[in-house]
Amino acid sequence: MKAAYFENGKVHIGEQPDPVPGKGQALVRTHSCGLCASDVHFLHAGQNIIDLSRRLGGPYAALDFGRPFVPGHEFVGEVIDYGPGSRRAVAPGRKVTSVPIMRQDGAHAVIGYSHDCPGGFGELMLLDEEIMIEVPGDLDDDHAAMVEPLAVGLEHARRGRPTKDDAALVLGCGAIGLGVIAGLKLMGIAPIIAADFHAGRRELAIKAGAHIAVDPREISPHAPLPDFGNRVPNLIYECVGQKGMLQRIIEAAPFDGRIVMGGYCMDEEALFVFAAQNKRLNVQFAGGEEPQDMATALRAIADGSIDVTPWLGARVGLSGVEKTLAEMSGPLAPVRTVVDPRVL
Amino acid sequence: MKAAYFENGKVHIGEQPDPVPGKGQALVRTHSCGLCASDVHFLHAGQNIIDLSRRLGGPYAALDFGRPFVPGHEFVGEVIDYGPGSRRAVAPGRKVTSVPIMRQDGAHAVIGYSHDCPGGFGELMLLDEEIMIEVPGDLDDDHAAMVEPLAVGLEHARRGRPTKDDAALVLGCGAIGLGVIAGLKLMGIAPIIAADFHAGRRELAIKAGAHIAVDPREISPHAPLPDFGNRVPNLIYECVGQKGMLQRIIEAAPFDGRIVMGGYCMDEEALFVFAAQNKRLNVQFAGGEEPQDMATALRAIADGSIDVTPWLGARVGLSGVEKTLAEMSGPLAPVRTVVDPRVL
Fold it and tell me: Are A182 and A153 in the same domain?
């Protein structure tokens, strides 16, 4: 099959082996796949991520950075076939997406970060038939590809255990932060404050459901909120993923505050335990979507209660992957560019 | 009054000004006061603790390390008088203890770490009459002095939100860890695993209610528990307070594990966010007792449901404070030595 693959920290376009479905595996033809900041991260720092996974326990331990693998974990595709002995619950021709996880002998492979389970930057994928979910046939492919990144935000939102008494603050309005905002709105949480350096992202945050969006260089996002009875944000979602954020939030959070660490930061983070103890803070580490979040995200996108249209930028073929990855980290890039691997 | 006081990191015995009660303040004659590891900590590293409090927000910002102050925050004493205009709810002659907090113009002073509010290493103290609680007259003074350190452990235990489904692990069996164990037992949590390097402390842990006490150099305290259906400790209390504990626990904890950070560590702590995210861990920072914990601790000590007798070592006069502080950090020292400041 044709694919955009990573090898030794470089993007290549070319032939990769067609995956062969085993029992319980669907063979899927990819229609659309989002390009995610973690793909960029992995392209540059993949060896470090693999080493840390081996040392500390993580899902990338089995990956060999020097061997080709096909990334792409925000995908939608069409079922072509199944491995022998499969349940075949979704008929060939129907569309599916999935948590990018494949069960393997009691362990899990991450689809897109595995030599056995190519991701959505290739023409063909294998999905676990017990994990994948069917996508309505009339849902646009690119919208369907946003189910996974939205589900990550919904998981983070949910892990904060938000209640009607919380004033939520979302730091960073990339796909994850926007998904958190949309999730909080869906749960009826108010107020929701968003913070991002860039005006375009703040506009998207308001569209996603934030009541206020601030530039943290101009207004402290931790300040009391005059329009909301001078409440102070007490439930703080970290969706930036840069070193130093945790201690900065600890210093800014109010007594009894709760922090959800959503941003994926591979650097060692430093904090002062006693500063967090003085305020009795709680830190919930959020990791990524579970099947229930995929189901919620799919339903919300399909019924229009969450609109991901503003996330979507250009659509590229395989030959556009390298350039898009090089340019997408900037805040002026669209939230998501998608690749259609059927197109070169 | 006579007192053992700290000045510039040294212990002195001598005269200190008699405190004068204002409105809402009781003047109290100290009967007994526990010597705590934080006193030792403050004696050696007080300037650093004050600096960090000023930089990061903490209760010691107003203290001048170069000026005398009288420590001692685990006290019981007898009410002598009140400031003018006080409510005087507890009659003179009755015994009281208190969260070591004094309200001051909308802020709080920590009794024992304040130039205005001397602690229990002196003959006289001021207590906030709205915060102090009466101690039954027939309760032994030294047992009553243990209400505060026990209440710290009860607060930590409670902040972990333990349920019947949790298998609890308490790392470190000093006064705080023992208080956590006693609190968990009071709440009916099982199993409770205790870990400490020292046999004497492990014995105390079993007396306090732990089902198993292990030497972590011999048996991993995070291992499955054959006597409890191979459950793995999922609610982990850090009561050691040494640098590096948080990341070590993150690496050892199971998926969905909860960590309560009770140990008071002033060093910068490092952690890998992604390692905690992979397991969706939750970290609750615990800070110290609230009035409800003091009430619970007093009731439990008074009715015998928690027995602090094994905690108590020698009783010293003021002249014994310096030597006791020098020797108490070792695990072979009793959990608590108390000072009676009426005795030289």
Answer: yes
**DSSP annotation of A209:** T
**Which helix (H) or strand (E) covers residue A271, if one does?**
strand A268-272
**Tokens read off for B319:** 């002249």
Interface of A with B (CB under 8 A): 52, 56-59, 159, 246, 251, 261, 263-266, 268-288
- Cross-chain Cβ contact B282/A287 below 8 Å: no
CA distance B343 to chain A (A): 35
For residue A317, give both structure tokens: 């073929």
| Residues in CB range of B292: below 8 A, 6 or more apart | none
User: Is residue B299 situated within a structural domain?
Assistant: no
B245–chain A nearest CA distance, Å: 11
Asked if residue B138 and residue B19 are part of one domain, the reply reads yes
The answer to whether the Cβ–Cβ distance between A281 and B285 falls below 8 Å is yes
B168-204 pLDDT, tens digit per residue, is 999 999 999 999 999 999 999 999 999 999 999 999 9
pLDDT tens, residue by residue, A174-193 = 999 999 999 999 999 999 99
pLDDT at residue B57 in the model: 84
* CATH number, residue B47: 3.90.180.10
CATH of the domain at B205: 3.40.50.720
The complex scores an ipTM of 0.95
Residues in B closer than 8 angstroms to A56, CB to CB, are 251, 272, 274-275, 278
Residue B298 lies in a domain: no
Closest Cβ opposite residue B275 in set A57, A274, A278: A57
DSSP for B169-227 reads EEE--SHHHHHHHHHHHHTT---EEEE-S-HHHHHHHHHHT-SEEE-TTTS-TTS-BGG
Nearest CA in chain B to A54: B275
Distance between CA B189 and CA A230 in Å, rounded? 40
| DSSP H stretches of helix in B61-174 | 141-145, 147-159
Q: Which of B268, B279, B287 sits opposite A272 (nearest CB)?
A: B268
Cβ pair A6, A42 in contact under 8 A: yes
Q: Which residues of B touch A278 (CB under 8 A)?
A: 56-59, 287
Section B235-247 average pLDDT? 96
Among A303, A341, A299, smallest CA distance to A320 is for A341
Domain that holds residue A31: 2-146+308-339
CA distance A161 to chain B (A): 12
**Beta carbons of A7 and A68 less than 8 angstroms apart:** yes
DSSP A90: S
**Chain B residue set in contact with A, beta carbons under 8 Å:** 52, 56-59, 159, 246, 251, 261, 263-266, 268-288
